[in-house]
Structures are given as C-alpha cells and as structure tokens.
Amino acid sequence: xxxxxxxxxxxxxxxxxxxxxxxxxxxxxxxxxxxxxxxxxxxxxxxxxxxxxxxxxxxxxxxxxxxxxxxxxxxxxxxxxxxxxxxxxxxxxxxxxxxxxxxxxxxxxxxxxxxxxxxxxxxxxxxxxxxxxxxxxxxxxxxxxxxxxxxxxxxxxxxxxxxxxxxxxxxxxxxxxxxxxxxxxxxxxxxxxxxxxxxxxxxxxxxxxxxxxxxxxxxxxxxxxxxxxxxxxxxxxxxxxxxxxxxxxxxxxxxxxxxxxxxxxxxxxxxxxxxxxxxxxxx
Length: 283
Known about the structure:
The protein contains 10 helices and 10 strands. 30% of the residues lie in helices and 18% in strands. The radius of gyration is 18 Å and the shape is globular.
C-alpha cells in the first residue's frame, strides 16, 4: 500500500492541482490530508472541493476550525479584540467566503486518524495529540518530541504510536528516537524554510514548491515482521505566479510567504528558537 499524505494547502489551488497530478503518476492507493485546507490563498471553494473528491481521510487543522466558526461568532470576535482589528477583519472575510455547507464540512472533520503499516502503529493529526495549533519544530526538545507519540483524549486509541505524521509547521523533516519515527509532511501551498542566510542558501528554489510525504508498507498488518516501511519526501514544482494573479483576501502577506518560503511574523519564529536556547540571529 502506498499512501500520500498532504497538509496545509491554505487555499493554494495551483499547488494543490500540481500535487494531485504528481500523486496520480506514482501508483498511490490512498491520499490522506492533515488539514488547513483554507486560509491565506484565494481558492477556498476549489481547494475544499478537490480535497473532498481526492482524499479518503481528511483531518481538521487549526485554520479549518478557526475560520469556519466552530466557536460562537461573537466569542471569536471578542477574543480577537485582544489582538488587533486586522485579525477580526481577517476572520470576518474568510468566514463570510465560506458557505454554510462548507463550514459544516470543516467542523465535522476528525481530529486524528491511525492505522497499522507493516506492524507499526501510524498516528496522524494536524499539529499534536492534544492541540491543533501547538508548534513542535524540528529543533525542539527531545521530551517535547516524544510526547507527540503519546495518546490523548482526542486520539482514536490510547496506545503509544510508532510513527507519527503531522503538519502545521510547514517544514518537511524526519526524526528518529526510541525506535520511533516523527514525520512532518511539509506544506502543499505554503512551504517554509526557517533557517535562511543569503550567503548560504542554495540557488534551487525548492522552497517555492509543494511538499508532501509518501508512506509505503503492508496496510493493516499489526504484527511486526520483516516487511518494510518506506518513507518518501516529495517536492513538486507549480506555477507560483499564476496562483498569485488572483486577488487573495490577504494577498500581500500570502505573496511574501509563498515567494520567500518563510513566515510573515519572524518574531514568533525567534521566540520558538529562544525557548530552546537558540539564538536565531546567529544563523
């Protein structure tokens, strides 16, 4: 069984179409999506439609939850007042774009999914077992990463996972610990490479591509055996300029992130590194 796992489309239609096209050339049996279908890009309806058609399993990301109105509308606005009016306007814009049927669809998406692959319990979620907006980066503390394998009230079982696949941070990577594997799919529509330096950066613009992961093994096999588990990281070129032609509701921010492959608010990024004792400015 070959399973393509995609995440963080963020309304980027050209990236999603190119990704699905690439997947269909690779003899893939199933496509799973880890959420954040919407927000940032301008093609909300089209991306939801494609994901619903092509993906066997779709999980709910924090943006899907936030903008579809899972919480009471007035409560959301009251909470956002603590940040800035721009956040209220941003929420209003996308919440109004979504149809009621699309909101219901996003609201009902499951939090996590799990299955056995060649004797390994694979668990998937958008960001973490407990929160859909927790940031766990590739340089994180070992204990923080280990907690990603532990169950919660939101996981389907209370077993400790062998392989965890998540999205949210928009950064493709793999780590090994305690005979376990932690995988991040990267982002289809909004890929990031946080550690950047003009003198050290490669000239290859791979960060402007759509990223996803393929898992391969014996689906549903619970007992450990000699059967293999394959992991493949994929990067797919797409027409970035065509995607940016349309007038997204946060066009300038989306353009900056897509073209530069980095997050809009580097203060948050620096804070994540600082909590690990890393001086981000030294990179």
